[in-house]
Design a protein that fits this description.
alpha+beta; 166 residues; 4 helices; Aminopeptidase
């Protein structure tokens, strides 16, 4: 199937939509992140952090559309790690209906290949399929990629994608 994939930058008026989609993402990652639901039956969202996607410079939340239908979201942050001048592909989630169509790979490739920015991609080492996905996408990029050691979260594998094309 050849689907039309589109990234749509959201504004604050779509925050509730992204917040709702985030619940599906949190559910799917709850086994390896070992998260439980709150007493209201929802997964926790740190609101001050979440709101930064619409307030902070170089932070953004995108909807992923497939043939005009909402298929997921992408969250991008400006890394705040010391000495790391890069954007971070913080979260990428695609609904099950749209998986196995190459949507997630196309979205990641588009973001990580555009512009001159360096990118930080972090994968939970315990999420074998996530790490395999990261490595597959990173190997296809027309940019230099290197694994870097960062001490802030030892459960993560970290890859720096430089803005330099090779």
């Amino acid at each position: 199937m050849h689907a039309a994939i589109e990234l749509l930058l959201t504004g604050p008026e779509q925050a509730e939509l992204v917040r709702n989609l985030y619940q599906f993402y949190a559910y799917e990652s709850s086994d390896w992140e070992e998260e439980d639901v709150e007493v209201d039956g929802r997964f926790y969202i740190h609101e001050p952090h979440f709101e930064r996607y619409w307030q902070a410079t170089e932070w953004a939340a995108y909807l992923v559309l497939v043939d005009g239908f909402i298929a997921g979201f992408v969250l991008v942050e400006r890394s705040e790690l010391p000495g790391m001048n890069a954007l971070e592909l913080a979260d990428l989630f695609i609904l099950k209906r749209y998986r196995r169509l190459g949507v997630r790979r196309a979205v990641a490739r588009q973001l990580l290949s555009e512009g001159q920015n360096d990118w930080l991609v972090r994968c939970y080492a315990g999420d074998a399929s996530g790490v395999a996905f990261c490595q597959a996408v990173l190997e296809e990029l027309p940019r230099s990629v290197q694994e870097v050691g960062l001490e802030d979260e030892p459960q993560l594998r970290n890859f720096l994608v430089t803005g330099v094309r090779h």
